[in-house]
Amino acid sequence: MTATTRISAAQARRIAIAAGGLDGAVPGKRGRTGIRTLERSIERLRLLQLDSVNVFERSHYLPLLSRIGAYDRAALDRLLHHDHPRRPRMGGYTEYVAHEAAVIPVADWPLWAWKRREPLRGGGDRWAAEHASIVDGVLAEFAERGPMRPSDMEHPAHERLPGGWWNKSDAYWATAVLFQRGELVTVGRTRFERQYAVAEQALPEAALAPLERAEAQRTLVARAAQAHGIATLDDLADYHRLSIKDARAAVDELVADGSLERVDVEGWGRPAWLWADARRPRRVRATALLSPFDPLVWHRPRAERLFGFAYRISIYTPAAQRTHGYYVLPVLVDDELVGRVDLKSDRRAGILRVQHATIEPGREQRAGELAARLVPALEEAAVWQGLDRVEVAGPGTWAAAVEGALRSAARPAG
């Protein structure tokens, strides 16, 4: 029997960081940030998770900032057809529930045919059956009128209702059903609202040919393994939200063909798999602000296993129960998650506000050194947001050190 390869915890972190495209992500020391660079970064991750919260910046912009620096957000908007809707093309992008709601390449649409045939979550099939005439009528309106936002519908069931975001019309929920089923496809966004079109009218013919379920899921697990570098079964399943059963079947096939190697990682206490072509750097150099929805940390058990970083998103937590602030971003320095900062882009005042800053336990003696590493990332983020300066505006165990590092960075040399 072949001996199982043993991987140290530190090496596993470096493999994961390099696989995720964060090795060498150092503010002020980046390469080009043009369209091709954006495309390559999306290709590495395979998707960008979407979220509407923009107190700092919407989530899909942030993984690219972390990896390539202060790129032109308008260029990404054009690439994804945000405020520039157009018919999707092979080589372009659309959206699907590929983790949660996410940007995906149009070429990946066939990989999700199996999911579009599955029962809808949260009793969606029952609702769709009870409202079949509305669902059919909404689809017919899109087929007749072409691409539009749900807010532009003229269907009688699309009445304006009071009560905010969740109090949507039945016609709106019909578009959600049709999107989940793949009968409507996203062709862009306007003011962050989706523009839908009938999939058969909008998608290239090559994107409409479905892949068989097992083949598609094997491809999805392979991509998750490439993006993670090293991972447990639940890490691989979570990347594209597959069942453990389906992910296990795909892993077995990938092990059999040599794409994955079974390994033991120090301290993990469970089997892990290494992508055959994963880089194994001896050290990594990085300083990055990570979105709450960055693939390096979006599966919270993986973040804790890799980095000892207990992370829970705070935007849905009542204010009185928040420990680290509202929009909390983990801070990566080299191969460690060393702290977390709550950021707000105060666009009217021109200030990037650090509303809370916490250093991870055990790193307090390095607070000043690590704050000096953080400051260039904060300043880069402020410039990227079109803001004039960074200010520490709140509490936390790292706040004083970050404020001191900002003052030192602003002091004229000599």
Structure report:
This protein has about 425 residues and is an alpha+beta fold. Helix 14 packs across helix 15. The mean pLDDT is about 95.
Number of strands: 14
Number of helix segments? 15
Structural class by sheet pairing and helices: alpha+beta
Q: Which term fits the overall shape?
A: globular
Report the order of strands and helices.
EHHEHHEEHHHHEEHHEHHEEEHEEEHEH
Topology readout:
Layout: E1 5-7, H1 9-19, H2 35-45, E2 48-49, H3 62-68, H4 73-80, E3 93-97, E4 101-105, H5 113-116, H6 124-130, H7 132-145, H8 170-181, E5 184-190, E6 193-198, H9 199-202, H10 213-228, E7 230-231, H11 233-239, H12 244-256, E8 260-265, E9 272-275, E10 287-289, H13 300-307, E11 328-333, E12 336-346, E13 351-359, H14 367-384, E14 389-392, H15 399-410
Parallel strand pairs: 1-8, 13-14
Antiparallel strand pairs: 2-4, 3-4, 5-6, 7-9, 8-9, 10-11, 11-12, 12-13
